[in-house]
Write a structure and sequence with these properties.
By secondary structure, the chain is an all-alpha fold. It has helices spanning about 5-15, 25-35, 45-65, 75-85, 95-104.
């Protein structure tokens, strides 16, 4: 996925977030990002790529509040978990083992 596509996705969804409310859910967006975008998010490179990745994760966090019931909760959770593990700088092997024991 290219940086341009991610920026376009961000711009469209930043505009729609103001329209979300109790009865207008972001379920489809959350599922799409979790299942289609997060697995390839690390492929976006360059200096602008890391900023776009961060902005997408922030937007996802804002949209999850307005999410209804997901059809594939396990896959979405695993995708978010893998993305966070890849982006967080963990240096202590004990800490990594502890995190795996919580979610494993």
């Amino acid at each position: 996925m290219s940086t341009v596509l991610l920026v376009t996705l961000l711009l469209c969804n930043e505009r729609q977030i103001v329209l979300l409310q109790k009865n207008v859910h972001a379920t489809r967006f959350v599922e799409y990002v979790c299942l289609q975008v997060l697995p390839v998010l690390s492929e976006v490179g360059g200096d602008a790529g890391s900023d776009v990745q961060l902005e997408l994760l922030k937007l996802l966090a804002e949209m999850v509040v307005h999410c209804g019931e997901l059809s594939s909760v396990d896959r979405c959770t695993a995708s978010i978990y893998d993305c966070l593990l890849a982006s967080l700088p963990l240096t202590d092997s004990f800490l990594i083992a502890k995190i795996y024991s919580w979610f494993g």
